[in-house]
Amino acid sequence: MEMSNEIEVKAAAGDVWAAFNDVERIAPCLPGAQLTEIEGEEYLGLVKVKVGPVNAQYKGKATFVERDQEAMKVVILAEGRETRGQGNASAQITATVEPLSDDRTKVEVATDLKITGKVAQIGRNLIPDVSAKIMEQFADNLETMLSAPAEDSSSGEGASSDESDGRAVSSPEPEAVDLLEVAGPPAAKKFGPVAGIIAALWIVRKIFKRKKKKKV
């Protein structure tokens, strides 16, 4: 599944480019994402999504495939596996930063997404609708982060270069992104009945499991 999104950020292009090259700073800007560890050139973390009551958590890693400072283009490969073994997800993300003015920047984001499992079966048709809205939230969070006073910390490229054995990253646990909620009323009306059936089956399955455990 290929998606193309465009966002505008109220910040200088140099600051936006620097942020895209600093995974520790930019990861919390993406809804549902959390960076947990840095191992050399690999960034380990998780992404939480759900469709109504059906939750999924993907754990995986992200690596830089390309960083072209002159063109202000970065390519990131992210790969993850659902923690209960019910699916995989991978995405190659290409972000190109373009200055519009001294304090206004456009970012074009092209994503090649591959996803399998329950969330894919239920939410695949929602993903194109929600991607633009998630990117809008990301842009707002990025603006807020860039406008905040710089913290004196060891985060960023300088910190990760000496941590070849791995370094844990302390960051708040994210809330799962609800694809139905983000997609809004039109999509909820369209896909709500399907999600409702899945939810009912999911609840029945949970009850059945509990009864089975009690008998044992």
What does this structure look like?
The longest helix has 31 residues, at 185-215. Helices cover 37% and strands 37% of the residues. The model is unreliable at 152-163 and 187-199 (pLDDT under 50). Strand 5 (73-82) and strand 6 form a beta hairpin. Strands 1, 2, 3, 4, 5, 6, 7, 8 and 9 form a 9-stranded mixed sheet that branches. The protein is built from 7 helices and 9 strands; from the N terminus they run E-H-H-E-E-E-E-E-E-H-H-H-E-E-H-H. With 216 residues, the chain is α+β, with helices and mostly antiparallel strands.
Report the CATH C-level class.
Alpha Beta
**Content of β-strand:** 35-45%
As an assembly, this protein is: single chain
Quote the distance from N terminus to C terminus. 44 Å
Please write the string of helix (H) and strand (E) elements: EHHEEEEEEHHHEEHH
CATH topology type? Alpha-D-Glucose-1,6-Bisphosphate, Chain A, domain 4
Overall mean pLDDT: 77
Domains counted in the coordinates: how many?
1
Q: Shape, please?
A: globular
Helix content: 25-40%
Radius of gyration: 19 Å
Largest sheet: 9 strands, mixed
Low-confidence stretches: 152-163, 187-199
